[in-house]
Amino acid sequence: MYLVVIGWLYVVLMMAVAEGSNTTGTVLGAIVTFILYGLLPVSLVVYLMRTPQRRKENKAREAAEDQLRRAAAETSAASGDPDTGSHAPAAAEPASITPVGKEGG
Questions:
Q1: Which regions in the chain score pLDDT beneath 70?
Q2: Contacts of 25 (CB under 8 A, 6+ apart)
Q3: What is the per-residue pLDDT for 72?
Q4: Which one-letter DSSP state was computed for residue 50?
Q5: Rounded distance, CA 19 to CA 11, Å?
Q6: pTM flag (> 0.70)
Q7: What is the C-alpha separation between 2 and 52, in angstroms, rounded?
Q8: Non-local CB neighbours of 45 within 8 Å, separated by 6+ positions
Q9: What confidence score (pLDDT) does residue 73 get?
Q10: 77 CB-near residues (< 8 Å, 6+ apart)
Q11: Residue 75 has what pLDDT?
Q12: Please, are residues 73 and 86 in contact by the beta-carbon 8 Å criterion?
């Protein structure tokens, strides 16, 4: 595919050179010719042709990230450390509150 892109850009470059070197042509006309006939269409075609490849790369990256997340979750669950859950650790109660089942004094 890139061979076609290179070939088309070569043809457009030669069109731009012919435009710029013609007695009735201008350098601005050569630049506009190169951009409008070469760069814009080629960039659009390359972008559209790479869409399936970009999707595959995104899916592969997401699968790798998901696998790393699962591995990290398994290692943290298997470590057996206390307070590894998603809840905040319990705080000590203030001294002014009596424990349940005990009378205040």
A1: 77-99, 102-105
A2: 18, 19
A3: 83
A4: T
A5: 12
A6: no
A7: 16
A8: 5
A9: 80
A10: 84
A11: 77
A12: no
